[in-house]
Design goal:
By secondary structure, the protein is of the alpha/beta class. It contains 12 helices and 8 strands. The strands form 2 sheets. The protein has a 6-stranded parallel sheet with strand order 1-4-5-6-7-8. A two-stranded antiparallel ribbon has the order 2-3. The longest helix is centred in the middle third of the chain and has 24 residues.
């Protein structure tokens, strides 16, 4: 079976020759802002591992870059663009009014769509290509909270409480920005669907108990649903990356129209696959712990 045939069989509940396997990480930080280098590195990575889909790991500020944020060059292979923003887009609440949907043909989104186009052309129908899209509310946090500040909050008080307070204090202005970000995502989704992407890898880190569901339903879910409904109309293998390691809440995202859920099921503070299997028949993607199974320890232990 090809990887595409294997995944399509899984979605239909049909027998497969083996369980599909995929893996990814932020390891292309020196090339992910250059189409030629990024395409070559992604092809080499896929050829080395033979995964059942190509998860395109774009740099985590590509939408901010498209809208005018200034990024310095990455200085080493471990440093993602997340840490390289020199000029943020939203420095005061009033700046939310200034956001504009970027042009797919002249902004950095053109580069990202070109990458997906070339990967789809290379792998044809044998291996599905899945580009990454962040939830509008996740983009909003990246646009308005500096990386160092996010890191400090995460360590000292948790990221969600101060972010939730900011949203509550600036609701009308932030919603203006979220509408622009949702439309920008929609245009990007249409662009990657047009060039052959099988689906999107849609990430949202806020569906967890630290954020009250009422506020999640205000600032996250409506915008996510608009993006995901469009993706579900255009593509056949959409993945929701249920991001986080702190008491993820399935009832926040149970109505999301995706084929697969990806989360850190081995994290002790997250629900297990068995627990979520009682609630849905979606495909599950998980199984290893990114903090322990991918790094450190002995090779034998990692393989086990």
């Amino acid at each position: 079976m090809t990887s595409t045939q294997r995944l399509q069989a899984v979605l239909k509940g049909e027998p497969v020759d083996r369980i599909p396997v995929a893996g990814w990480a932020h390891v292309m930080n020196l090339c992910d802002r250059h189409a030629d280098d990024f395409v070559k590195a992604t092809i080499n990575y896929q050829n080395a591992h033979g995964f059942d889909f190509v998860k395109v790991t774009e740099h985590p500020q590509y939408m901010a870059e498209a809208m005018g944020a200034v990024l310095r060059p990455t200085s080493n292979w471990e440093e993602t663009a997340f840490w390289c923003v020199e000029k943020m887009l939203v420095n005061t609440p009033e700046d939310w009014k200034k956001l504009r949907v970027p042009d797919l043909h002249t902004s950095s989104l053109a580069r990202e769509i070109e990458v997906v186009d070339r990967l789809c052309d290379h792998f044809r129908d044998d291996v599905p290509v899945i580009p990454s899209v962040f939830s509008p509310v996740m983009w909003a946090m990246y646009f308005s909270v500096a990386a160092a500040e996010q890191h400090r909050r995460e360590k000292e008080e948790g990221l969600i409480p101060p972010w939730a307070a900011y949203l509550a204090e600036n609701e009308a202005l932030v919603k203006q920005g979220l509408e622009v970000l949702t439309e920008a995502n929609n245009r990007f989704i249409e662009g990657v669907a047009r060039v052959g992407a099988a689906g999107i890898f849609f990430a949202n880190p806020f569906a967890q108990s630290a954020w009250p569901k009422e506020q999640y339903d205000t600032f996250a879910k409506p915008y996510d649903m608009e993006n995901l409904r469009l993706a579900s109309e255009k593509m056949w293998f959409n993945i929701f990356h249920w991001c986080g390691r702190q008491n993820l809440q399935y009832n926040y995202i149970e109505s999301y129209p995706v084929q697969a859920l990806n989360w850190e099921d081995t994290c002790e503070t997250n629900p297990t696959m068995a627990q979520i299997r009682e609630k849905t028949d979606k495909v599950f993607i998980g199984g290893i712990d990114r903090l322990y199974d991918r790094e450190g320890g002995s090779r034998a232990a990692i393989k086990e």
